[in-house]
Amino acid sequence: MTTAVPTSRTNGRKSVAAALLLGALGAALVLLATGRTWSEGTAAAERGISMAQQASGQEVTALPGALAVVGLAALVAVFAVRGAARRLVAGLLVMSGAGVVGASVTGLSDTTALEEKAAKVAGLTRASIADVGHTAWPWVAVAGGVLLLLAGLLALRFGPQWPAMSGRYERGDAPAPRRAKAPADPDRPEELWKALDRGEDPTGGPAR
């Protein structure tokens, strides 16, 4: 019975560190991946000229990047609330991670952004693109979403043991030490009058 509280505190500290690490790393991976090339291909331009086209993750789908920002904000907000509000925010973090995974998987084979670029090159409302290829960056975004999801699950499981942003881990019932009173400023008017009342010379000369 006496080891339950220390064990709970240890688990709480470890889960806090793990959630912060997973959440921050996951959001960073997603934001990095969405700025990289996800798909590439060749568009036919005028006079039979072919031009290589590339589409970044942000151009393919803006959802993973937006959800990564939401997840990161939720990770910070977890420590600003308690009780049911903390569970709600943790749930938002879980959904953000799951949304990143879903949107990134959908973007693995999406060619809409490449076709739109090909249409601009050809001057048409719609154009086809050949030699389509996809990079590994969508999978990096998927991995980042999984990390955000895990951070959210940790917050749901161990969140009640975590401290709030304005609180701290329990450190016993000892009262906080009292701050020493700052010495009075002898140059203040009220201190000068008090010195005169005591028969002292506030200028530092000998008393009369």
From TrEMBL:
Keywords from the UniProt entry: Membrane, Transmembrane, Transmembrane helix
Residues forming coiled coils: none
Domain of life, source organism: Bacteria
Transmembrane segments: 63-81, 88-108, 136-156
Taxonomic source organism: Streptomyces ehimensis
Spans annotated as Disordered: 168-208
Protein name (database record): TIGR02234 family membrane protein
Compositional bias (Basic and acidic residues): 182-201
